[in-house]
Amino acid sequence: GVHRAWWKEAIVYQIYPASFKDSNGDGIGDIPGINSKLDYIKSLGVDLVWICPCYKSPKVDMGYDISDYRDIDPQYGTMTDIDQLIESLHARGMKLIMDMVVNHTSDKHEWFKSALSSKDSPYRDYYIWKKPRIGANGEKLPPNNWLSAFSGSVWKYDEKSDEYYFHLFATEQPDLNWENPKVRQEVYEVMRFWLDKGVDGFRMDAINFISKDPVFPDAPVTVPSSKYQPGTMYYAMGPRLHEYLGDVGKILKEYNAFSVGEMAHVFDPNEIIKVVGFDRNELNMIFQFELTDIDMGLGGKYSPNKWTPRQFKDISNKWQVFMQENDGWNALFLENHDSGRSLERFLNYKPEIRSVGAKMLATFIGFQSGTLFLYQGEELGLVNMPKFWPIEKYKDLETVNYHKQLLHDGASQDAMDIAMREFQKKARDHARLPFQWDSSSFAGFSTVQPWIDVNEDYKEWNAAAQVNDPFSVFAYWRSIFDLRRAYKDVLVYGKFELVDAVNEKVCAYKRSFGSEVALIVTSFSDSTVIWTVPQEFCKAGKIMLSNYGDVKELQAEMVLHPYEAFMYILN
Ligand code: TEU
Ligand code: CA
After folding, report:
1. Smallest Cα–Cα separation from 398: which of 149, 64, 184?
2. CA 434 – CA 27 distance, rounded (Å)
3. pLDDT (tens digit, 9 = 90+) per residue, 16-39?
């Protein structure tokens, strides 16, 4: 039988603190701002809130560079504010999970400051240091050829000790040395610190990178145009990962805590099931990115890739079937703070189809098997910044560094144009624009010009305009959550099967539990299609949701509008 668990039934809402709500008029979102919007979150019908990092940080990477794990950054508030957030969420029957960033710290963390100060520091071995490699002309070179996630080498030279330190992300984000048992103890104590405070669990950042191949071999050349090469095969899902996650899992279990691990660059089900298998006691679920990386080519995030709706549903199907056959669990999502908005990436976006398209994508992801995650603004159908915004508008180091690198490499105009187009689809800043609360100045996010520009569509596209509109994207998502609760057996625990699996335009699936059956139909076509309904569904069903608001009978042939979506309960 199925294993039931509260964390399988939860609906999660992700908040990006800098961009949610500014309470004190400095143009930056903060925790008191979040506290003032809990009724909004509650009214959407979510169970659990995940806040991105708000710990003390120099914010080279928007808080994913932590300088003190036990304090809140003054820009975001105080410890009292976070205590109040925990309390107020609990009072409303919701839970809170925090972002645990322990693959690396900030270079301003006391551990790293000490490690850098002397080779004899007791903290030196908290990080990863290596001697330079000596080149043909006696020059000092990085110990290997791996590429950092934010461009350039993963190694940074330290003159004083004549050694390089390792950083998968920015130079200001040195990786912790998990081989050192003291580092692991420190991390586990930090986790306990927050759990003891009443936090209900964690999203574990970049957690599949914590165990590296100790040899640090050169990576094969897969991107010939680049000086450095992706080394993921040597640091993603490394040799001791399951040992470390076993320790993490023990702590989580003690507190009955929620856990979701972020695991980029790995799509191997056999490795993933070792993390999320029900009896493994490592993590509840992980974010893997095979689906949402579908538009990324071999050259990485900003290389284009052509894909088809058929591939999109095949990837979903692969993970749905795999998890149900192996007693694992999926995390379902289309958006987060690390990419462009789903409307601009997963369908042929035009303003005319905005509402219908957002609801179609919601239907596609919303009734699959797994724990559902929604990123702030996704419930309103928010989109990317306008196409004519120049490179100067982008704030995020991932995009800025990539752009600098192209200029430095003397990239052709053609290559620059391609990059700009890809930024417009995928850059992280799109999801980080201020939340659109209402039609007042700065979208009601702040009383002053925010740290990043407000999208120009806010007068029409905002929360105030949608919360009381029964046909809004907001209302549609709420209906999905209501249905998941009302039909929990079939929609949370039921079996998943594709329907008409070979169809190139229509993605339809069935959920079933005993005699209960749900049918979900979504069209990924921007024009009308005729869908031949499989025999077993040509009977009376009850339509529960429809993005065009049509009440259709299930019959042998159905005419589907562009991006139409609907959901039936049959018995
Ligand atoms: O992202 C980890 C990660 O693997 C990145 O390569 C991610 O895929 C990239 O941002 C996509 O553009 C996490 C956080 O989600 C991200 O915001 C942080 O910048 C990163 O870790 C470093 O902490
Ligand atoms: Ca503020």
Report:
1. 149
2. 9
3. 999 999 999 999 999 999 999 999
Q: Which residues surround ligand 2, an ion (CB under 5 A)?
A: 22, 24, 26, 28, 30
Task: Report the separation in Å between the CA atom of 550 and the middle of ligand 1, taken as the mean of its atom positions.
Answer: 40
Q: Which atom of ligand 1 is nearest to the CA of 426?
A: 12
Considering the domain 110-166 in this protein, what is its CATH number? 3.90.400.10
Q: How far apart are alpha carbons 532 and 504 in whole angstroms? A: 13
Residue type, 458: Y
Residues with CB under 6 A from ligand 1: 61, 64, 101, 149, 169, 205-206, 262, 264, 301, 337-338, 398, 428
Q: Which fold has domain 6-103+181-391+431-477?
A: TIM Barrel (3.20.20)
pLDDT of residue 493: 98
Cα dihedral angle (537, 538, 539, 541), rounded to 10 degrees?
Answer: 50
Q: Residue 307 and residue 438: Cα distance in Å, rounded?
A: 36
CA-proximal residue: ligand 1, atom 11 (nearest): 338
CA of 429 to the centre of ligand 1 (A): 13
Question: What are the pLDDT digits (tens) for 466-523?
Answer: 999 999 999 999 999 999 999 999 999 999 999 999 999 999 999 999 999 999 999 9
Residues of the chain with CATH 2.60.40.1180: 494-570
Q: Which stretches of the chain score pLDDT less than 70? A: 1
* Catalytic residue IDs: 205, 262
The boundaries of every CATH 3.20.20.80 domain in the chain are 6-103+181-391+431-477
ipTM of the complex: 0.97
pTM: 0.98
User: Ligand nearest 423 Cα, by number?
Assistant: 1
CATH ID of 494-570, from 2.60.120.40, 2.10.109.10, 3.40.1010.10, 2.60.40.1180: 2.60.40.1180
For ligand 1, pick from 338, 395, 397, 432 the residue to mutate: most ligand atoms within 8 Å of CB.
338
Could you give the C-alpha distances from 142 to 103, 107, 119, 406, 470, in angstroms and in order? 20, 19, 19, 21, 58
